[in-house]
Structures are given as C-alpha cells and as structure tokens.
C-alpha cells in the first residue's frame, strides 16, 4: 500500500499551513493555519473493510516542566513519548482520500467535536492534555491538530502520517477514545500500512 501526503516529502519539514503553531520571532509561537493535509492512498489489499488514519509525534518530552519556558531548554536526552495529533477510525473501504482542510481548517480554541466527522470517526488527540491548564484553550480536542512542538526543545520532532487497512468495518470504539485505545483495537486486524514522515521545529537554533 502506498500513501501520499500532498506537500509533505519524506524526511522534509512539514509546511506551516499544516501546523497548529508557527514560528514567531517576537513571541516564539503563533497559531498556524492548522489545515489537515490532502492524503490519498492506493494498493489496499483484498479483504480491506475499513481504514484508520493517524498522525503522531514520537519525540514529545516525557517530562514537560521546562517546555516553552523562558531561559530554559528541553534537553534532547529526556525520554520521549508518543503524542497523537490525529485519529480517524471506521473510514469506509470505499474512501481513499481525505482532502486538504476537510477535517481541520484553523485552530479552534477548546477543540473540535468528536464522534462522526467529515471522514470517519474522530478520536481524541493529546492537545486535550497539553492545553488542560490553559483556561482560554482547555477542552476536548478531536480530529486533526497539527505540529506545535516546544519552541525550546533541543530535539527535531518527527511526524508520522499513517494509514492502516483493516479486516473489520468498525473497531467498535465510541465516546472519547484515544490513541492507545485505537492501537489496542487495531491489534490483529491490520492487513497493510503505509507512512509518510515529516519534521518540524519551532526552535530557531534548529530551523
């Protein structure tokens, strides 16, 4: 199976149009256009009954105390964890494309709704936890929200855009399900997968 993510080349920077946060020399970061990229795939194996689309960053610091703090840096040696930016499940087998901006077009304070989205069923992304302490932004974030790594992180972040072909029409998930729930439900049902990886940073020393 082959996945194309329009505008994102393997190993190259993710364009700012797809980012939640963009570099600002005065304030470190400003809200970005936050559009989901156009994704299309082909070559799904026989027996495919649905698709899962996800995007995650495996380079998020496991301890975020120093993230985005003046006069501090997030050491590249801190252990890293997965941060899910996009979870769509139960995408019908007849669909092989998600157009740009279909699932997200701008930063929406307090998050987008879960449940059935324009394409598939939306899961909860990790901005829900990341912004929980910000009264202006706190909420449940579902669907796509793009890259926004700490602007003082010494590590370049990688963003894995993935599609998985499954042998079931539905994963049976409902309510506020997260990335771990999706991975657990997918186990044993994946017929094929494809991935495109881009990079992103807000650290001026790495740009």
What does this structure look like?
- The protein is mostly beta strands and 207 residues long.
- It has one domain: Phosphatidylethanolamine-binding Protein, CATH 3.90.280.
- Strand 8 and strand 9 form a beta hairpin.
- The two termini are 32 Å apart.
- The model has no long low-confidence stretch (mean pLDDT 97).
Spell out the key features of this protein.
207 residues, mainly beta, Phosphatidylethanolamine-binding Protein, six-stranded antiparallel beta sheet, three-stranded antiparallel beta sheet
Describe the structure in brief.
The protein is mainly β.
**Which architecture would the CATH scheme give at its second level?**
Alpha-Beta Complex
Instruction: Please give the largest β-sheet.
Output: 6 strands, antiparallel
Note the beta-strand portion.
Answer: 25-35%
Q: How far is the first residue's CA from the last residue's CA?
A: 32 Å
Shape designation:
globular
